[in-house]
Design brief:
Length: 412
Amino acid sequence: MWMGGYPPLGYDVLDRKLIVNETEAETVRHILRRYIVLGSVHGLKVDLEADGIVSKVRVSQSGRRWGGRPLARGALYRMLQNRIYLGEIAHKDKSFPGDHDAIVDRDLWQAVQHRLAGNRIDRRTGGNARGRSLLAGLLFDGEGRPMTPSHTNKNGAGYRYYISRGLSTGTKASTPQGRRIPAAEADRLVVDRVRAFLADEAQVFDAIGKHAADLAERQRLVGRAGELAKTWPELSPAEALSILRAIVAGIDILAAEVEVHLIPAALCDVLRNGPDGVPAAPAHPDHGAYLTLSVPAAFTRVGRDVRMVLAGPNTMGRGNTPDPSLIKLVAKAHELNERLTAGEMSITEIAASEGVHRSYIGRVLRLAYLAPEITEAILDGRQPPGLNAKRLLQGRPLPPDWDGQRRLLGFS
């Protein structure tokens, strides 16, 4: 018998007994499954918000309604550990069989508890943080779809990826603009860009101005930001993970650019309190006031793999030899070719959507068929002197054979 209070998501109360609400019960199971995939309550919260999943709507006897809002992290932690979903009633440190139906099977429940326990150990020891999906719950593709962690094994080696939501539940044909990017490279890109920002005194000074009005404090926080940028490699994996998840609101993966959206108010908290004092979740009234850090980056296919190549001075300790315009042009060629081969649009329709002549689209598309070693050299910045985007686009038609391409473009 239900002893009073409001029923949790997944149940209603009838005659003082918990009755399964089938629609909400499926939402509960979805939440537990997503946590197992994401491995992060912060990432889970962002993921659920993107899907429009909210808290239980409640109505008082007087007719007042409340709830129906995004689930807070605390509420999610309680939900993930609530034994009511197993058909049990908890009292102090013990649980007893209830007279209500379970909505979660024990295998799913145990998998969630195992994941929670593992994360608690990782937070205490810093163990395995590098192997997890650092950006889970933060990534979105160019169409605004969440990107979720995925992995595969090739020849006994494991590889991690982030993939657009539609690709995890459907096919490339059903999500033609979906992306699949290497997770390790994406993680490194974001960390490098954040460190580069922290090392830039002028940018940090301006970013935290609204949240640190006192000039002396602002200067002190700028100094701490620079120190954090230098000592980041010395942080434990758990500390780095905690800081990044606290200050990054979201990351957009665009065709030739990655945008990292920082929360300046949360950054101030981190700089004031240090790695050990990172708040559980940024909770500021101006949470939507983000600072966007851009990184020129191209994701392009070389053989069967997707590679990410950076260009420009926005990363820590990386050279600037790749030609950003050349890389963007090759990336654009692969993007347009995927749209065409997926049957999404014709060349004429693509040209109209891009606002260019179809002959231009034809010249760009031919670059999707460059020899793999030519594409790789361009991505690494090893192209011959004088080979630029203009020459590659407006020069003589590319031979279909790779040897002819190498001779024409000066690679042999």
